[in-house]
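dumping this here so i dont lose it
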């Protein structure tokens, strides 16, 4: 759940920064990478939870 909140916060920040894309290109790129990493972590956590439920 914490990752979902962080993703939403980063996406909102990214949307604000993208309005002035030339000046904020590197910041936007860093935020996109952070969002991608958090989404991957969330997906892997879901996979672990599901595999634990199946094994029980």
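and the seq i came up w/
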């Amino acid at each position: 759940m914490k990752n979902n909140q962080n993703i939403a916060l980063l996406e909102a920040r990214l949307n604000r920064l993208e309005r002035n894309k030339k000046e904020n290109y590197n910041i936007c790129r860093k935020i996109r990478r952070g969002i991608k990493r958090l989404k991957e972590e969330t997906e892997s956590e879901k996979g672990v939870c599901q595999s634990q439920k199946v094994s029980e």
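The first helix runs from residue 2 to 18.
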